[in-house]
Design a protein that fits this description.
The chain is mainly α. Helices cover 70% and strands 0% of the residues. It has nine helices and no strands. The chain is globular and about 60 Å long.
C-alpha cells in the first residue's frame, strides 16, 4: 500500500499554542481596534483623526513586533528555519515578503485616510480587506500560472528560481509552521517530501488555493460594498476591521 512521506508534526500536541496564537491575532487585530474606536468616539471628546491615530499606533506596534520577531528568526546566524537551499543569511521566506508588503500597503492606506480633512473613516476601515485581496488574489493566480506551466521568476521560499510553481496554500503553510511554529527546516523538508510523494496531497493543496482564493475575494468584495454603502460609517468600520 502506498504511504506518503510522514510529517514530523502533530496538531493535537500544539492545541494550546495554536489557541493562544489565534487569541492574540483576534485581540490585537479585531477586538482592541473596535473596542478602542467605539470607546474613544462615543465616550471622549477626541477628534476622529486622533482616535484613528491611536488605533493605528496599536496596530503598528503589534505588527512590527510580529514582523521583527519573525525576521530575526530567519536572520540570526545559526537559524534553523530558513528555506531549503537558501545560503544567504539575509534571505527571507515568501511569507515574510508578503507580510512586509501587506504592512506597508495597510499603513499607507490608514495613514492617508487619517490625514485627510475630514478623516476618511471608510478608507481607514480597509486593513482586513486589503490583506484579503493581497493573499487571495495570489491564491487564485497561482493555479492558473501552474496550468500554464510558468516557472518561478525568483526564489519563493524553498522553491529556487526556475522551479515549477506550487500552490500558495502549500507555501504559506510551510513558512508559517517552519518559522512561527518553530518547526524549522526539518518540517520544510518533510513538507516538500510529502508534496513530491503524494498526488492526493498535491491535489488537495490546489483545491484549497481555489477554495480559499475565490471565497476570500468574494468576502472582500462584500466587505468593501458594506463599507462604502452603509450610512452609519461606524458600522462599516466595525465590519471592515
Amino acid at each position: 500500500m502506498f504511504a506518503p512521506a510522514p510529517l514530523p508534526l502533530s496538531i493535537h500536541q500544539h492545541k494550546t499554542a495554536i489557541a493562544l496564537q489565534w487569541m492574540g491575532i483576534l485581540t490585537t487585530g479585531f477586538l482592541i481596534p473596535i473596542v478602542a474606536y467605539f470607546a474613544l468616539t462615543y465616550a471622549s471628546t477626541l477628534a476622529l483623526k486622533y482616535v484613528l491615530a491611536i488605533i493605528t499606533g496599536i496596530f503598528g506596534v503589534s505588527s512590527l513586533y510580529s514582523l521583527g520577531l519573525r525576521s530575526f528568526r530567519l536572520f540570526r546566524k545559526f537559524s534553523s528555519c530558513r528555506p531549503l537551499g537558501s545560503t544567504n543569511r539575509w534571505a527571507l521566506d515568501y511569507f515574510n515578503w508578503n507580510f512586509c508588503l501587506g504592512f506597508a500597503v495597510v499603513t499607507v492606506a490608514i495613514s492617508y485616510g487619517t490625514s485627510r480633512t475630514p478623516s476618511d473613516l471608510r478608507l481607514a476601515s480597509m486593513p482586513l480587506t486589503i490583506l484579503m485581496l493581497q493573499v487571495c488574489a495570489q491564491l487564485v493566480a497561482l493555479p492558473i500560472l501552474q496550468a500554464l506551466r510558468v516557472r518561478t521568476p525568483f526564489r519563493i521560499s524553498s522553491l529556487a528560481r526556475g522551479a515549477p510553481l506550487r500552490p500558495g496554500v502549500f507555501v504559506i503553510a510551510e513558512d508559517v509552521v517552519a518559522v512561527d511554529a518553530n518547526q524549522g527546516t526539518a518540517f520544510r523538508q518533510a513538507w516538500n517530501d510529502r508534496y513530491d510523494s503524494s498526488p492526493p496531497f498535491r491535489q488537495l493543496m490546489s483545491r484549497m488555493d481555489w477554495m480559499w482564493g475565490i471565497t476570500g475575494l468574494m468576502v472582500a468584495a462584500g466587505i468593501i460594498a458594506v463599507i462604502y454603502t452603509v450610512q452609519n460609517r461606524s458600522i462599516g468600520y466595525a465590519i471592515g476591521r
